[in-house]
Amino acid sequence: MSQSLADLINADGVPVGLRMWLKSSAYTQRLLLGASGDPWVSASQYLAYFSQAQGLLKPDVAVIEVGELFDSWLSRNPEFKPEMVGKRKLSYPLRKLLEQPQPRALLAEVVEAVLAHLRGQKPLVLAMPSPRHWLQHANTLAGREAIDVDSDSIEDSAMYIADLARAVSVYEVGGLLFEEAVGDQSSEPIDLELYRPIINVAKHYRWPLAVRLGDAAVVSNIALSEIEVLISESGLERSGMAQGVNVSATLWSNDALPPLKANQFYFAEVPRDERPEHVLDCLARVRT
After folding, report:
1. pLDDT digits (tens, 9 = 90+) for 39-56
2. What's this model's pTM, rounded to 2 decimal places?
3. Which domains, from first to last, does the chain contain?
């Protein structure tokens, strides 16, 4: 029986057994595979990389970066890019990318292999760009720059991502994480109601849903209350929800970390070129 992210959070939204959530793929790929290494060529190659990375950092939550899988596939299949601009609709590049059978099949193989490796010892979370973020990213990959994102396009993107999530519903996924773009200076707050297709899929399969905010604010509405985990720079004051406090800017500089409240845990992204000894020292400081 595989663990769920819900096993690390009690009914009041208080983390139990979750102190530090790491985002480490850029760092571990550089360290273990080299500057140009790609773990996504096959499920067996990914598992070899993943098992080494887990043994190195021993994170509380196991994470598969789904967006990186699709980026890797596209980089190895550049002839597909012209197909992403067949229509003017903003959500079309993402739709065409996510419906491709080869990366979908690889994702299923990777999830199955990783779950067998974990043996239920920790939850497996699928991390993806948020609908807003992935919409922008896919258009950039397709050669479209400076697009004006609209609500309909975000909702369409959420629908395509929800369909991708359904494709791995036969596996005991422990939760979903959606990440907004870091450095997004949009003046409009994030409206999670536009992500309703994803929220509904997560509810249907009983997958805890986590959202990592970028620099934009978030609309306080019903959709926000349906998120189990919210990760932000400072930790928002909301009851009944586990909150990750992003300490990426302070942890690696040895600055004092903010004290955690009852429903909070630390979140940190490991810098790609950080020294291994320093990373382990910093993580040991958090865990003591």
Report:
1. 999 999 999 999 999 999
2. 0.95
3. 5-231 (3.20.20.210)
